[in-house]
Amino acid sequence: MSSRWSALFFARRKGNGEVLPRYGRSVAAVIAVLLLAAVFTFAFARLQYGWDWGAVYRYRHKFVIGWLVTLAISASSLVASLVTGMCAALAQRSLFLPLRYLGKLYIELIRGTPLLVQILVFFYVVADAFGVGNRYAVGILTLALFAGAYISEIIRAGIESVGASQLESARAIGLTRRQTYRYVIFPQVMRRILPPLAGQFASLIKDSSLLSIIAVNEFTLNAQEVNSFTYSTMESYLPLAVGYLALTLPISMLSRYLEGKYRYES
Amino acid sequence: MNLRVTGLVKRYNNIAALDGISLQVQDARTIVLIGPSGGGKSTLLRVLAGLEMPDQGSVEIDGEPLPYSEEHLIRYRRGIGIVFQAYNLFPHLTALENVTLPLVQAHGYQKAAAQEYAMELLRRFQLEAHAQKKPFELSGGQQQRVAIVRAVAVKPRFLLFDEPTSALDPEMTAEVLDIIAELREEGRELILVTHNMGFARKVADHCLFLGAGKIVEAGPTRQLFDEPQTAELREFLSRVLKY
Asked: How far is B215 from chain A (nearest CA, A)?
């Protein structure tokens, strides 16, 4: 009896691989969800709290607007951060040495300081000095610079993981450096860096909540406002969790799908 | 081909891989480089391939000096075919795409024309069924044959092979060597680094024996194998032919 049960719960090692029991995957998933649900049900049941969803529901449009703004900001800074990251990664491999060190400096400064400080400095000091008043543009650019530093390190590691023999083959058939990047390095890099890139994008979406401190009308700011109107803290912030999940889950699912689609062994 | 090398030196971290190589070969069809590992034969081949710039000395092939700048070397490399030991192919491209990439990007073919021509070559080398496969779906021998097709496709002046079979088992070695022999029969000029002495003897009309970064002995292949003049070559041959 016990062996039949344990056989359902355990994967077995076989050589270098693993064998899963027949319904093991679905049973385990259900158990994991039930466990988590049990913990939270218990916790919320113990909570002495006067739930009042009605007060928050009256401000539902604020959630919708905030969510859409977050979606727009995330999407734009996502694209911009990819471009920034790619430029910084290439700069670090540039033959022009000042550019190389500019790239390194940028990455160290951004990765070593809090995003909160970066947002304040970029908005109140840098953007102000250059006469850029649009807080949305500044917000998007700051996020792109922030995420770009991490993405450039991901790309750089990806480029370095393409073997020397590949570069040699590319030279041997007479490709220029530019062609080598375009047809040999980047296609291989893109497939290898998809998982860490997806993680970075999910972080970027959540980090956009910090733009609330420069009054960008995004999701978190709206939830904060609803909270201050209604004093219903839980009811204001729980939808936030759901809203951000709705943005980040599709990204990790898309990444998993693309990973499977582009699979090849090298 | 006529090959003329004068005072060639190539150092890696102050260790001389080529230590003053001079040689002259006239009217050779197939040149084979043999010698112990670390003797400099691969380095010499890489210099001839335009992949490595020598620290000193000069190389002249059919009267044309090997260029020294990377831009000119790119053009030079486009004119020859190079096949390495292994891992030649790009893993993210199919066999067909591997062959068409240099045709389209480096030789100005239209995509459709390149595909048609590449298919024709793959058919000729019995690789038609594998055209749409990625390298990991092919055996080592098939991968190496595709790499040879890619090198041949650009209609090179001559072909260079750097130990093309040392990563393969005997059966696959045979299928790759068959193709190389076939290319030789077609009258293509080859320069080849190999550990396969039987094959070297069979296909090459000219042989260079390198050791410690120097040419120890050079001459017609038959002469080197049948009547080695130096103690080094005698010892080398007795060692590699022992089993």
From this structure: 25
Which CATH superfamily is A60-261 part of?
Answer: MetI-like (1.10.3720.10)
Q: How far is CA A156 from the centre of its chain?
A: 18
Q: Is the dihedral of CA A224, A230, A231, A236 positive or negative?
A: negative
The residues near A147 (Cβ < 8 Å, ≥ 6 apart) are: A77, A78, A81, A84, A85, A200, A201, A203, A204, A207
Nearest to A174 among B87, B89, B106 (CB): B106
In chain B, what residues touch A176 (CB-CB under 8 Å)?
74
| Backbone region of residue A231 per phi and psi (left: phi > 0; alpha: psi in -120 to 50; beta: other values) | left
Instruction: Please judge whether A165 and B84 are an interchain contact, meaning their C-beta atoms are less than 8 angstroms apart.
Output: yes
Q: What is the ipTM of this complex?
A: 0.87
Domain borders along chain A are 2-46, 60-261
Q: Quick one: tokens of B217?
A: 């002995």
Q: Taking the mean position of all CA atoms in its chain, how far away is CA B233? A: 22
- What are the sequence ranges of the domains in chain B? 1-80+190-243
Residue B210's identity, in one-letter code, is L
| Residue A144 exposed, middle or buried by CB count within 10 Å (0-12, 13-18, 19+) | buried
pLDDT, tens digit only, all 243 positions of chain B: 889 999 999 999 888 888 888 999 888 889 999 998 888 889 999 999 999 899 999 999 998 898 888 888 999 999 999 999 877 899 999 999 999 999 999 999 999 999 999 999 999 888 999 999 999 999 888 999 999 999 999 999 999 999 888 888 888 888 888 888 888 888 899 999 988 888 888 888 899 999 888 889 888 988 888 888 898 898 998 888 877
CATH topology for B1-80+190-243 is Rossmann fold (3.40.50)
